[in-house]
Write a structure and sequence with these properties.
This protein has a domain of 102 residues: Sandwich (Immunoglobulin-like). By secondary structure, it is mostly beta strands. Strands 1, 2, 3, 4, 5, 6, 7 and 8 form an eight-stranded antiparallel sheet that branches. It is flat, with a radius of gyration of 22 Å.
């Protein structure tokens, strides 16, 4: 016990801690179309002190499909980072990718970083891809899908 003197007032204290890290994980998700069946390509680049870092284990992504089913897939080492192609995109709706990498620091300590990425597949039957930059002329159903995706993202 910190204060074991009989009759003494208890010692009250507070601790404030702050930690900084130079380990970053850049990432992006690209898709050529919003139609069902279009592959989604996940690219990640772990960086330590501004230099590309190698992952200790394969980088994995936990994917939540629109029907809330979960899938796992691994990203493979490429010249400029890690890349993986997710092809099970036959359902319309939002796809959530939670990517995890374990990097070894120069002092030999393993550090875990995660990166969240999201993609969307629109309902089948769309003749043209939505163009959100068109404002009022954009397809209103695309905005509803995007709105549901954003609500799910921020509500958890």
């Amino acid at each position: 016990m910190a204060n074991d003197v009989a009759g003494a007032a208890p010692l009250v204290y507070a601790v404030i801690s702050r930690a900084f890290s130079d380990l970053r994980m850049e990432g992006r998700l690209t898709q050529n179309s919003y139609q069902p069946g279009t592959p989604m390509v996940v690219t990640l680049k772990p960086m330590l002190y501004g230099v590309a870092a190698e992952a200790l284990e394969s980088i994995t992504a936990d994917v939540i499909l629109p029907d809330q089913e979960r899938r796992m897939f691994s990203l493979h080492r490429v010249r400029d980072g890690y890349r993986g192609t997710f092809r099970d995109t036959h359902q319309a709706g939002p796809y959530h990718f939670d990517c995890t990498a374990v990097i070894l620091t120069p002092s030999g300590v393993p550090v875990t970083r995660t990166r969240y990425l999201g993609g969307v597949i629109l309902p089948p039957g769309k003749k043209k891809e939505p163009k959100p930059w068109l404002g009022k002329r954009a397809d209103p159903s695309w905005w509803r899908v995007l709105w549901r995706f954003l609500l799910r993202l921020f509500r958890g």
